[in-house]
Design goal:
single chain, alpha/beta, Barwin-like endoglucanases, Pyrimidine Nucleoside Phosphorylase, Chain A, domain 2, Aldehyde Oxidoreductase, domain 3, 39% helix
């Protein structure tokens, strides 16, 4: 944010910066010595919020106090995210001060006590979140206040509009700008990387901004990053779309609905993704990205994020109304969420599935191909590129004749160059301990196995699924192969799988051979 403060020469609370290279993910943290005179004079203790200022920029960071000799009394350091946000350099002298009172926190408290918030309230809260004024504790309070169905329809609209308003907005010369999103909760399901080249090769504009995994072993941005750069800024994204008609980039790098990325940082460890916040998250980014026509994929299954047709209908109705309120034309598509889509779970493994479908390989996952064609077809129809009922056939033609594969390669090259996804150093296959018909797969715990193996942070980590519902298995039939980059992560994942033998249910028996 722009600074209007006293000069460095006159400021009493000045410390010299020293870079320690501490990664706190996205949380801005300032480190100061316990005997720092500024810390003592201001009465700051650990977890205090401090305004950190250079001549042209200012951020607010959470104080961590160092009791050893790592920092001198006249030095301070910043976490890497704070260092980048401030644009700091080693030796810079920063002014430290108390931040202005966080007025919008009263709105959060009101929501915690059950009061319905209006547009102005959400604009205050989201504005402060986007500028980094909320600590992790305060963000957690906001996430909790909005979770569990606590947002009304009007509040969801207000939250969506507020999230759109604090970031950049893209505008495209095309009258129709296509987009697609999956509500998630289903491992694999990496259809976006197939849909985008089909749509772009069909002559429509599709500037796709995607997220990283929140509570899943991979987001589209994670999988795409194993093939091409995704952290493109706005000018670079626009160049790719101008050249190829589409892109697949990480939304966090282009500052579309930036408050959402901050909120996601809290939702991830809490494993919370409430309906109202989900709708606001999805639609704020679609509107900010300049989309006009959006297909929303809603998988339904007993261990998916959306578990019943009734819940899917409810979510679809909210998405449609909120979408109309922010100027979007939506088509909500329900799909089977009883089991993962594709075979790979984890960034590189999911990318390999995508490549096999785009290349038309004989062993490509048929379910991933079909799901991508359904969504592409519905999007082509929604955008008016084909007549009703002709979308699936049109999408299949683009995929089968190689146009989609050529377009995907061109998009990767335009984003910075295409490469093959990495492979894990360590693998282990788990097998059925008895024969019978596979009748159930627990998507959530299967995703947990992949995450404990290191996904999505370790791009090559995750698992391969060797079975589908309805398969008849023999004893010792392979079920999954776990992939990890270290022996410790592999064992960590296998231990969890060994304690959860009902990840798969084969008739009425357990399914995994106990792990030694």
């Amino acid at each position: 944010m722009t600074l209007h403060a006293q000069s460095h020469d006159d400021a009493p609370n000045v410390l010299r910066l020293r870079r320690l290279g501490i990664d706190t993910y996205q949380e801005p943290v300032i480190y100061m010595a316990a005997d720092c005179p500024v810390c003592r004079s201001e009465g700051w203790e650990a977890q205090a919020r401090i305004a950190v200022t250079l001549p042209e920029r200012s951020i607010i960071a959470t104080l961590n106090v160092i009791t050893g000799a790592l920092l001198a009394p006249d030095e301070a350091s910043l976490s890497e995210s704070a260092w980048v946000a401030l644009g700091a350099r080693d030796g810079d002298r920063v002014v430290l001060s108390h931040p202005k009172p966080l007025v919008s926190l009263s709105d959060v408290r009101a929501k915690l006590y059950g009061r319905e918030l209006d547009q102005a309230s959400f604009e205050r809260v989201i504005g402060d979140i986007a500028t980094g004024r909320y600590s992790a504790i305060e963000l957690t309070a906001f996430v909790a206040a909005c979770a569990g169905g606590r947002l009304s329809l009007q509040e969801t609209i207000a939250l969506t509009r507020a999230m759109i308003g604090v970031g950049d907005r893209l505008a495209w010369p095309a009258p129709v700008v296509a987009d697609k999103h999956s509500v998630g909760g289903l491992p694999g399901n990496r259809t976006t990387m197939i849909v985008v080249p089909i749509i772009a090769a069909s002559g429509l504009v599709m500037p796709k901004t995607s997220s990283r995994g929140i509570t899943s072993p991979a987001g589209t941005a994670d999988a795409m990053e194993t093939l091409a750069p995704v952290a493109l800024d706005l000018p670079a994204m626009q160049r790719v779309v101008d050249r190829e008609g589409g892109c697949i980039v990480w939304g966090g790098a282009v500052r579309l609905s930036p408050a959402d990325d901050v909120i996601i940082r809290i939702e991830r460890p809490l494993d919370i993704d409430s309906e109202g916040q989900l709708v606001a998250s999805v639609l704020s980014k679609k509107a900010a990205a300049g989309a006009t026509h959006v297909v929303i994929d809603v998988p339904i299954g007993p261990s998916a994020k959306i578990r019943t047709p009734e819940s899917a209908e409810s979510l679809g109705a909210v998405l449609t109304v909120v979408g109309q309120a922010v100027g979007l034309t939506l088509d909500v598509v329900h799909g089977d969420g009883a089991q993962p889509i594709g075979r790979g779970i984890g960034p590189a493994l999911e990318a390999r599935d995508v490549l096999s479908v785009l290349r038309g390989e004989a062993g490509a996952p048929a379910d991933l191909r079909e799901r991508a064609l359904v969504l592409s077809g519905r999007l082509l129809e929604l955008a008016g590129a084909v007549t009703s009922g002709q979308g699936h056939a049109a999408a299949a033609s683009v995929l089968d004749d190689g146009r989609a594969w050529r377009k995907f390669q061109a998009i990767c090259e335009a984003q910075g160059g295409m490469h093959e996804p990495p492979r894990a150093r360590y693998t282990h296959t788990l097998v059925a301990r008895s024969g019978g018909t596979l009748i159930d797969i627990d998507n959530r715990r299967l995703a947990r196995v992949a995450k404990l193996a290191g996904a999505p942070k370790s791009a090559a980590a995750g698992l391969e699924l060797h079975v589908r519902l309805g398969d008849t298995l023999e004893p010792d039939s392979p079920l999954i192969t776990v992939h990890a980059q270290s022996p410790g992560e592999l064992q960590y994942s296998l231990s969890y799988a060994g304690e959860n033998l009902d990840l798969f249910r084969i008739e009425n028996s357990g399914s995994l051979r106990p792990i030694p």
